[in-house]
Amino acid sequence: MKQGLFALGMSVVLSIMAGCRPQQEDWKLVWEENFDQEDHFDEASWSKIPRGRSDWNNYMSDFDSCYAMRDGNLVLRGLVNYSLSADTAPFITGGVYSKGKVGFSDGRLDIRAKLYGAAGAWPAFWLLPENEGWPDGGEIDIMERLNNDSIAYQTVHSAYTHVLGIKDNPKQGSIGLIDRDDYNTYSVEMYRDSLVFFINNTRTFAYPRIETDKEGQFPFTDKKFYLLLDMQLGGSWVGEVDPSDLPVEMEIDWVRFYQKKKK
């Protein structure tokens, strides 16, 4: 009986360990970022995201206080703007992307991070194509989290979903549970005929290429995507920011990219 319990216990341990990474016999690690630099992220792979006019980037800032390297993590912050008197934005946020530096396709991307909550906080990890406009080029949202929720959103966008408004054939996105107080791993597997999403190695949903006479349904092959890691505050989706909840942070432990082993 004790041997049976021991075997069962080892099976549980091995299952938990397997949940931390894709099956090693199928995948080969081809690129990783462990954020183990002491003072600054690696500029050979990452750049600060410039400010734009959309909800997701209208508070982006290169202000040093929005960024930190701490205990092997990249820290991105959302702050009340008390410091930049010439900047009219009420809040400032940090974000980095691999645009023009590191591209991803035909593989599996894993991101391990800890998210801290605040009213109006909207951290996200997502992919956009190099040199192609939105929404025609496609968008892959690996993780979006609102406020202090115990769920994360994973979604795809394209001309098919946004311009034509077809969001249920196939289903455009899903949600998955996260541990609000610890690190979670968010993943997407990019195939030529589908995108498959995971949270903590639990499959949440898949978005397939389908037969259709409508244009732009699956613009996710034959191109490189760059990765965005950003903290944002406020907007029409997440709602108003509570300044008393700030500053807010997220800690990104690592990013890993795998490709299928050749047989």
Automatic annotation (TrEMBL):
Q: Where is the GH16 domain?
A: 25-263
Check the record and name the PROSITE patterns matching this protein. GH16_2, PROKAR_LIPOPROTEIN
One Pfam family cited in the UniProt record for this chain: Glyco_hydro_16
Q: Where is the signal peptide?
A: none
User: CDD domains, per this entry?
Assistant: GH16_laminarinase_like
Q: Which GO terms describe its molecular function?
A: hydrolase activity
Q: Which UniProt keywords apply?
A: Hydrolase
Highest taxon above the source species: Bacteria
Q: Which family does it belong to?
A: Belongs to the glycosyl hydrolase 16 family.
Q: What name does the UniProt record give this protein?
A: Glycoside hydrolase family 16 protein
Q: Which organism is it from?
A: Parabacteroides hominis
